[in-house]
Amino acid sequence: METSYRLLVVVIAAVFLRQAFATKHTVGGSQGWDESTDFDSWSSAQTFKVGDELEFKYSPLHNVAELPSESAFKQCDVSAASNSLSGGDSKVKLTKASTRYFACGTSGHCEQGMKVKITTVAADGSPSSPTGSSTTPAATTGSTSAAGPRHQLLSFFGLMVFVAIFFV
Ligand SMILES: [Cu+2]
């Protein structure tokens, strides 16, 4: 009885810690990896952090080609692909702060807009360049870090669960 309780606690803690540190982004949201999806709108609403994962979900008509450069991306040069994925459910780990380019390798699909540019930032979420040119009044600074408290709350919850494992 007690052993299964502790196992449950460990599983819950693992789930919360994973949520606190990594996010899985389903490319294109509920529409998935498809010609009809507006990938610019989708990606601009996301924050990609180191450690996060992309998941491409698509029909057998499609595949995922990673392109090596901005120019290959702009020209839809899928023949230059540095990596190709297929099978309908492809996961890509974002391992460093960089910009990566993905397109569908099926003829004509990239030209129809089936491509997405992913810019990954450092996991701590700190901006890569200095912000603002003037001193911000103290009263408005609270609104700039909306993602921070939630992250800290999840981390804190995970820590509390680990503490509970040792004292229960
Ligand atoms: Cu396609």
UniProtKB/TrEMBL annotation:
CDD domains (alphabetical): Phytocyanin
Region forming the signal peptide: 1-22
Gene3D superfamilies: Cupredoxins - blue copper proteins (2.60.40.420)
InterPro entries listed in its UniProt record: Cupredoxin, Phytocyanin-like, Phytocyanin_dom
Gene Ontology molecular function terms on file: electron transfer activity; metal ion binding
Pfam family, one: Cu_bind_like
Spans annotated as Disordered: 122-146
Keywords associated with the record: Glycoprotein, Metal-binding, Signal
Chain intervals with Low complexity compositional bias: 125-146
A cellular component term, taken from the record's GO annotations: plasma membrane
Annotated Phytocyanin domain residues: 23-122
Stored PANTHER family: BASIC BLUE PROTEIN-LIKE (PTHR33021:SF489), BLUE COPPER PROTEIN (PTHR33021)
Protein name per UniProt: Phytocyanin domain-containing protein
